[in-house]
Amino acid sequence: MAESLQSDTHPARPADRCGPGMLLVVSGPSGVGKTTIVHRLLERFDGVFSVSATTRPRSAAEVDGVDYHFLDEPTFQRWIDEGRFLEHAQVFGRSWYGTPREPVDAQVAEGRLVLLDIDVQGATQVRAAMPEAFGIFILPPDEDTLLARLRARGREDEATIERRFAEARREMETARTCGAYDAFVVNDDLDRTVEEVAALVGKRREREE
């Protein structure tokens, strides 16, 4: 089974590729704009996403080692026992998901920026396993704005939106106290937020040199 990290981003400017490797953990509640920020960072720094492992069935359109590392449950449990995950969790009491450590370590050693887009629970595990990782949590301007963004997506009924909103409030509260994050950035303007996060990442890499 392949264990390489994949990236489909465009090459960054040469200067952005310079510097030491780093593991960047980005978290934030649903509706905060995190996905767009993450993809902008990948382009800016010629970064790579880590490829997660999962026990859920592979769909016909998915490629093993690219979309996920698809493992059976005994193998996944063995990897847990062997300490091969930076973080892992069982979702909805069914499928397991986790971030394999070996490919992350390899890419960081090569000087790459490796990015994890994970929740607070996962970020807490990463902090314990890899304290040198840099954690950033993306916040909405305020709770009313977050609720409006969730509704504006138009993909879910009101009951689901209210549940996601409640989960987001709990996640933000936990993020402030769990010790997994080095910086909190408010996304009140997407372009400005990307620049602020990129500056934080750049300063951290300079400090590591």
Shape: globular
Give the SSE string: HEHEEEHEEHEHEHHEH
Structural class of the secondary structure composition? alpha/beta
The percent range for helix content is 40-55%
The CATH architecture category equals 3-Layer(aba) Sandwich
> How many distinct folded domains?
1
Can you tell me the CATH superfamily? P-loop containing nucleotide triphosphate hydrolases
- Provide the spatial order of strands within the biggest beta sheet: 2-7-1-8-9
Quaternary state, please? Answer: single chain
Number of helices: 8
List low-confidence stretches: 1-18
Query: Count the strands?
Result: 9
User: CATH fold name, please?
Assistant: Rossmann fold
Report the biggest beta sheet as strand number plus sense, adding barrel if it closes: 5 strands, parallel
Beta-strand content: 15-25%
Query: In whole angstroms, how far apart are the ends?
Result: 34 Å
Name of the level-1 CATH class: Alpha Beta
In angstroms, what is the radius of gyration? 17 Å
Question: Care to describe what's here?
Answer:
Residues 1-18 have low confidence and may be disordered. Helix 2 crosses helix 8. The longest helix has 20 residues, at 158-177. It is built from eight helices and nine strands. The chain is 44% helix and 19% strand. Strand 5 (85-91) and strand 6 form a beta hairpin. The protein is globular. It is α/β, with parallel strands linked by helices and 209 residues long. It has one domain (14-208): Rossmann fold (3-Layer(aba) Sandwich). It has a five-stranded parallel beta sheet, with helices on both faces. A four-stranded mixed beta sheet has the order 4-3-6-5.
